Amino acid sequence: MRQICGGRGLGATIRRDETTGEIYVARVIHGGLADRSGLLHAGDRLVEVNGHPVFGLEPEQIIQILAHSHGTVMFKVVPITNRPVNNQTMLYVRALVDYSPQQDPAIPCADAGMVFRRGDLLEIVDQTDALWWQAKKLPCSSACAGLIPSSSLLKRKQREFWWSQPYQPHTCIKTCKVHSGGSGLSCSLRCPSSCYSALANPYEEVVRYQRHPEDTHRLIALLGPSGVGVNELRRRLIEINPKTYQGATPHTTRPLKSHEEPGREYHFINRDQFENMAYNQCFIEYGEYRGHFYGTSVEAVKDVLTAGKICIIDIEPYAIDAVRTHELRAYVIYIKPPPLDQMKRTRVNSQLITSYYTTRSFKDEDFQEIEEAGRKMEQHYGQFFDHVIVNDGLQASCVQLLTAIRRAQDEPQWVPVSWIRPTVQF
Ligand SMILES: Nc1ncnc2c1ncn2[C@@H]1O[C@H](COP(=O)(O)OP(=O)(O)OP(=O)(O)O)[C@@H](O)[C@H]1O
């Protein structure tokens, strides 16, 4: 079967049955001209267009007839007898991949297709066709829907693409930072499962969620390229209002120092206990530094939340999966570097903390590294950012952060449906 379309103009696609030569309306685009007229329906058999019999014509010939029509276009159709009832419930999804109909030779009609980018919110208005859905982008800017590949079709495309790529041994050495009172430690970590998550699900089903005032606060997870100012912003926020904001106390296997108190700077545990916790997936992220383990546990975050405070942590991107859960419902804020020249201007008097606990002025290479790391982070994880703050001036960034956190707690947000109905399969 071949399909053609009247594109955005007509708002319908037609197909030719290759065995009989009959022409049928394949689909009517929601909100398009044909849909609004209420006169054409998917499955109707097309007999004439502007007096031209269409039986046996090539689809392209019908397009030509339409293209040369001016003013009113007359269709003679035999209506479908049993029109399917659209009793599908509304479906909202977050796109986890990019899609461009112009680059997809398989789409029945590129003009009727809809471009989307990772992170876009889509309202699926029609899933009658198992392969091609109709969707609108949120917030709805257009009354007319566009064609997008269904979840199963996109998965198939991803699998085909993946197999067509040359084999590359995949090692993911990530660095993480475990912060306590402003100190940063680097360590290497295991490979994140999220590497392949986009391959598994191109769309994430979402629902509108409004935190009930009596519910615990949402966890705020900050992330950004090393050196952009994630820790500085987190520290300042807690300093401004320690009664409202608090970090999660990390666990460590290193010995207690004389000025420290168990449970204040760290929860001090032995290696066996740490390994046991790691084995039981108690940590959001963890790693090793100079022979000792450090990690932030889910329980440490929950302790802050159940005490009625807003827990604010900084995470490495690989830990996004561990905080975007039914249990923690994290609001993920990406701290983005400003353009290079602006970054240089604002950091003239700032000190970079190196992995050896020394400080030094920023160099040109540091700014380039931050920019590059930020670009990669957005490219790989941008679809999971609930909010983005460009850390230009520190004061302005702090204000933006406070506003974003207030919104996360008080205003409705789109969240994964699994947070609300944990057993739902999509
Ligand atoms: N907007 C800004 N303007 C000027 N200086 C800033 C700004 N944001 C952060 N800084 C400074 O940049 C330095 C690095 O910031 P910070 O330690 O918070 O980075 P980070 O993102 O947490 O990196 P890392 O993860 O490597 O610790 C600090 O000295 C901080 O005061």
Outline the structure in words.
This protein has 426 residues and is of the alpha+beta class. It has 2 domains: 2-78, Pdz3 Domain (Roll), CATH 2.30.42.10; 174-420, P-loop containing nucleotide triphosphate hydrolases (Rossmann fold), CATH 3.40.50. The chain is built from 13 helices and 25 strands. It has helices at residues 7-10, 33-37, 59-67, 151-164, 197-200, 230-240, 271-279, 298-306, 320-323, 340-346, 364-381, 394-410, 417-420, and strands spanning 2-5, 12-16, 23-28, 45-49, 52-53, 75-78, 91-95, 121-126, 132-138, 146-149, 174-177, 186-189, 203-209, 220-223, 245-246, 251-252, 267-268, 283-289, 292-297, 310-314, 331-336, 351-353, 359-361, 387-390, 413-416. Strands 1, 2, 3, 4, 5 and 6 form a 6-stranded antiparallel beta sheet that branches. It has a 6-stranded antiparallel beta sheet with strand order 10-9-8-7-13-25. A hairpin with a 5-residue loop joins strand 8 and strand 9. Residues 170-198 have low confidence and may be disordered. Bound molecules: adenosine-5'-triphosphate. Adenosine-5'-triphosphate binds at residues 177, 184, 224, 226-232, 346-347, 350-353, 391, 393-394, 397. Keywords: SH3 domain. Belongs to the MAGUK family. Residues 88-158 form the SH3 domain.
For the record, the CATH class of the largest domain is Alpha Beta
**How many individual domains?**
2
What's the tally of helices?
13
Percentage of residues in strands: 25-35%
Task: List low-confidence stretches.
Answer: 170-198
Helix content: 25-40%
Please state the CA-atom Rg, rounded to the nearest Å.
Answer: 27 Å
The ligands found in this model are: adenosine-5'-triphosphate
What's the mean pLDDT score?
Answer: 86
What is the CATH architecture term of the largest domain?
Answer: 3-Layer(aba) Sandwich
Helix/strand/pairing category:
alpha+beta
Named CATH topology of the largest domain: Rossmann fold
Main beta sheet: 6 strands, antiparallel
Distance between the termini: 29 Å
Fourth-level CATH superfamily of the largest domain = P-loop containing nucleotide triphosphate hydrolases
| Gross morphology | elongated
Number of strands: 25
